[in-house]
Amino acid sequence: MAYNILICDDSVAIRQMLKLILTTYDYEVIEAHHGLQALELVKSHQFDLIITDVNMPKMDGLSLVRELRTLPKYQFIPILLITTEPDGETKKAAKVAGATGWIVKPFNPDQLIVAIRKVLR
């Protein structure tokens, strides 16, 4: 079974890197440039996992997580946040917002896949 993953990041380079890693492992990937675009995409697609950056224009990752958790079909879908901010306050805010997990940039592709497999069980 191929899993559908939405990646949301304002950095083209990060989206390309994530897409390359994920498609190598046969995941289906759709990209969003910011949180508002991600919210539009979830209306017309069903995703098994959402990976989002924290700091983005138009709608940040924490706001996206909060919005997704209000949608019945995304209340229990895993959401991983990726960021360069390793501080405890941001992690706490992510957990309160409803994020499933946290990945700090830069990350090792193998670590990313391990985290994805863990939340998709």
Question: Could you explain the architecture of this structure?
Answer:
With 121 residues, the protein is an alpha/beta fold. It has a single domain (4-51, 61-84, 97-119), classed as 3-Layer(aba) Sandwich (Rossmann fold). Helix content is 44%, strand content 20%. Strands 2-1-3-4-5 form a 5-stranded parallel sheet, with helices on both faces. α2 packs parallel to α3 (61-69). The longest helix has 13 residues, at 12-24. The mean pLDDT is 93.
Task: Identify the notable features of this structure and list them briefly.
121 residues; alpha/beta; 5-stranded parallel sheet; 5 helices; globular
CATH level 4 superfamily: Response regulator
Q: Would you identify the CATH architecture?
A: 3-Layer(aba) Sandwich
Question: What percent of the residues sit in helical stretches (DSSP H or I)?
Answer: 40-55%
Element order: H for helix, E for strand: EHEHEHEHEH
Strand coverage percent? 15-25%
Strand order of the largest sheet: 2-1-3-4-5
CATH topology: Rossmann fold
* Average pLDDT over all residues: 93
CATH domain class name: Alpha Beta
